[in-house]
Amino acid sequence: MLQQLHIRNYAIIDEIEISFSPNLNIITGETGAGKSIVMGALSLILGERADTSVLMHSDKKCFIEGFFKVEDKQAVKEFLQKNELDNEETLVIRREIASNGKSRAFINDTPATLQQLKTLASLLVDLHQQFDTLEIGDSDFQREVLDALAGNQSLLNTYSGVYKQWATSKKELEQLVSQKNNFTKELDYFRFLFDELSEVNLQPNELEDLDNELKLLTNSEGIKTALSRVAFDLKESEVPVIQTVKQLVNQLHGFSSFHHDLPPLINRLQSVHIELQDIASEAEGISDAVNYDEQRIDWINERIAAGYKLLKKHGVKTTAELLQLQSELEQKLQAVLHIDDAIVEKEKQVETLFKQANTQAEKIAAQRRKQTSPLEQKVNALLFQVGMPNARIKAEVKDTELNATGSNEIEFLFDANKSNRFEPISKVASGGELSRLMLCIKSLVAQSIDLPTMIFDEIDTGISGEAAKQVGVIMKELANSRQVICITHQPQIAGKANAHFFVYKDVKGDSVKTNIRQLAHEERINAIAQMLSGEKPTAAALENAREMVGA
């Protein structure tokens, strides 16, 4: 609900502030007084583009701010949460246009894009202007009308869940079939690569280990000679190192009691003696284990050559990478073997979900068809009521393939002159007819759809008298459950207002400014009487006006 609209420095508006009723708000005023300017300002916070021509004073910025009560609007709360905007009970939308033409938008004091503004505005305000009532020709809106009248929301919720599962499973099936086709084309190649790797039968880290072993074998003679020399020099040379160290220990041992530093030194020499004995023994052992094996070298060279060929072919560097590739190829081959079973299983799932979705869609379609005749009768009666006695509407429900909203395509057709030639609404209805038709339709579904604030800009074009009165009656009923704002020239409609605003030009010196004020009870009667009989209303007009406002 639009609680308040604040406009400053827009066109010929200096500054005005309007506090709206939650029910039926009527805006009247003489032609040219600036009613359309107020709507133009409102459209700016609804996301319309603007330029510096809207500035009344070029040295000041234009400022339009709307305060909306949104405590029970779930869609608005979801939008704010999705866009990481503050969720307050009162939503504030502000638009500023600087003197250089730069425009800025804010939602709850957070900068916003025009697209965000438009999206949010569509949840808050439903604006109907002459020749701008395109929504009624939209197939989604027409479907929503039938579903609202049919009470299909629960069925649609159930259907939507099943349809999404079916669509997802169908896509997965298509991917499996595509995967199988690709696998089939590449199966022989995958098998060749796998067999090639399996035939070599590499073990973890094998190539790296063989490379180290090959280096050892090719240097075995040199290694053996060095180790033998170490063992010989330590144990068997003319002056063995081990024997020399033992002699040194014995020489010092006889003097150990004469100097306190000698025992530790002797102990260290004894440790060296023991360590050298171990080194000599280990060198002999290693030497005995190192042997030149020409056959083993040849086998290792062949094995490494085979492994390096595979490394180069697959563009990898280690045995582990080759084994990983072998495992992946095996998985692909296994997938080919099992993919047919997966496809059969997925086909069963898709078929089951399709039947479930189709059953739900048929129930929804039946409910929609059941509502076409009552909709036509009620809307046609309302059209007669609002001054379109020859106009008729027809609702067609055509079968289509399953889609996100069922298995139907809804289209409203219109015949303005009992010609029996029904055409799509957008092609044959005039602007005024569209506005009144939209009013009739939305008055029917108002209790079923959470409609936003509805704004009608001169919906009364081309009507008067009883037809205008009936438009007012319908608006009054509609406004019992939601906010309606209407710009009108018809006293019959103005008489139904819960809040009546009067737009007027205020002349101060050489400047003309648009202003607006809410009329008190007696002022309303006088304004409506003027709409009936002119600037100086007659007693009859005043009496008629009192009757219209129920005074």
UniProtKB/TrEMBL annotation:
Record carries keyword rRNA processing: no
PANTHER family: DNA REPAIR PROTEIN RECN
Any one Pfam family match given in the protein's UniProt record, by short name: SMC_N
Organism: Danxiaibacter flavus
Highest taxon above the source species: Bacteria
SUPFAM superfamilies found in the cross-reference section: P-loop containing nucleoside triphosphate hydrolases
Keywords: ATP-binding, DNA damage, DNA repair, Nucleotide-binding
NCBIfam families: recN
Domain RecF/RecN/SMC N-terminal: 2-506
InterPro entries referenced in this protein's UniProt entry, alphabetically: DNA_recomb/repair_RecN, P-loop_NTPase, RecF/RecN/SMC_N
Stated role: May be involved in recombinational repair of damaged DNA.
The gene coding this protein: recN
Family statement drawn from the similarity comment of this UniProt entry: Belongs to the RecN family.
Name listed for the protein in its UniProt record: DNA repair protein RecN
